[in-house]
């Protein structure tokens, strides 16, 4: 009403199907309609069936909910947009971006087929100028290249010719690994944000996990829709697969020219942070499952081994965080 040049976006966060059906046709025709791409996408991991509750990068959208609402908006004469996470999510917000470029480009392909004409690719986290956004941007150039060509060119630009193939291989390994993330755990409480910064407790604290900053030892609360044992196995599997990508990047580093070395070192630090946090989350689950189970010589020995690994992870991650100020920072929570 006050500006003919203002661009207005109507966003369907939290709209149920009944509200969407009635409201979308009533929206002003000169506004854009934004739907959450991944929300309600069905997921099956570790034998557990869940749905995406908000954002996800481990699960590629769009979901039937979004496509239905986009169809309603198009029928009402509205321009459609997708709300998608292309840098990071609360699956792990302690890094400025999660290096899963293959999944991002797969999402771009799906959105193109859905016919949306705009993207909002970040939220309180996710605004970092990353190679993730670079590959998403490259997808929309004309003439459009295929996914492998875009990834190859992005790796070439960032790391140079000699290292590009190994770096692109690492991105594929990360993308494959991340699809083991047990979506349906309570991402706002689980210590994937904190990793080894969340100390182990030998005795029960009795505290329930607080949103984002205070996981404590509430491993049953972290588990969400997963049995704790299944969540532990999924994080252990994710970490084991992710480590292969880190190894590929570290091998390639020697082939990165000096002028590009700073970016490569940062990207390896980001990949290592993901690895350390995923492994630490698996460790914490296992430690508390053992702590609350029968005490045996074998269980005590395993708890000691986990503790020693957490000390090692904490020392490794301290050096990573010390050298790179973008690690473990998120705008609404500051430093973890």
Describe this structure in words.
A 4-stranded parallel β-sheet has the order 1-2-5-6, covered by helices on one side. Strands 3-4 form a two-stranded antiparallel sheet. The protein contains 10 helices and 8 strands. Helix 3 (101-114) packs parallel to helix 4 (131-139) and helix 4 crosses helix 5 (147-159). It has helices at residues 17-23, 64-75, 101-114, 131-139, 147-159, 161-178, 219-222, 228-253, 261-291, 297-323, and strands spanning 9-11, 32-36, 42-45, 48-51, 79-83, 119-120, 329-330, 334-335. It is globular.
Question: Briefly, what is this?
Answer:
The chain has 336 residues and is α/β, with parallel strands linked by helices. It has helices at residues 17-23, 64-75, 101-114, 131-139, 147-159, 161-178, 219-222, 228-253, 261-291, 297-323, and strands at 9-11, 32-36, 42-45, 48-51, 79-83, 119-120, 329-330, 334-335. It contains ten helices and eight strands.
Search tags:
336 residues; alpha/beta; four-stranded parallel sheet; 10 helices
């Amino acid at each position: 009403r006050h500006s003919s040049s203002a661009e207005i976006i109507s966003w369907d966060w939290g709209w149920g199907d009944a509200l969407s059906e009635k409201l979308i046709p009533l929206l002003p025709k000169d506004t854009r309609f934004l739907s959450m791409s991944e929300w309600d996408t069905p997921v099956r991991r570790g034998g557990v069936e869940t749905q995406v509750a908000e954002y996800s990068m481990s699960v590629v959208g769009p979901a039937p909910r979004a496509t239905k609402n986009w169809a309603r908006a198009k029928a009402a004469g509205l321009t459609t947009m997708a709300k998608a996470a292309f840098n990071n999510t609360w699956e792990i917000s302690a890094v400025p971006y999660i290096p899963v470029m293959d999944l991002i480009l797969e999402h771009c392909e799906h959105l193109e087929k859905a016919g949306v004409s705009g993207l909002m690719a970040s939220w309180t986290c996710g605004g970092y100028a990353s190679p993730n956004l670079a590959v998403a941007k490259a997808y929309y150039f004309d003439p459009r290249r295929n996914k492998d060509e875009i990834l190859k060119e992005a790796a070439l630009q960032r790391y140079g010719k000699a290292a590009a193939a190994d770096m692109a291989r690492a991105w594929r390994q990360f993308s494959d690994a991340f699809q083991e993330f047990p979506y349906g755990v309570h991402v706002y409480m689980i210590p994937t944000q904190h990793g080894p910064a969340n100390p182990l407790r030998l005795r029960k604290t009795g505290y329930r996990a607080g949103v984002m900053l205070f996981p404590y030892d509430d491993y049953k609360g972290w588990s969400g829709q997963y049995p704790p044992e299944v969540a532990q196995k999924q994080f252990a599997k994710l970490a084991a697969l992710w480590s292969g990508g880190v190894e590929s990047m570290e091998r390639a580093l020697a082939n990165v020219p000096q002028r590009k070395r700073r970016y490569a070192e940062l990207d390896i630090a980001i990949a290592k942070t993901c690895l350390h946090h995923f492994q630490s989350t698996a460790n914490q689950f296992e430690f508390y499952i053992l702590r609350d189970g029968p005490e045996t010589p074998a269980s005590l020995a395993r708890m000691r081994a986990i503790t020693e690994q957490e000390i090692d992870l904490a020392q490794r991650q301290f050096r990573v965080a010390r050298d790179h100020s973008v690690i473990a920072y998120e705008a609404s929570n500051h430093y973890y």
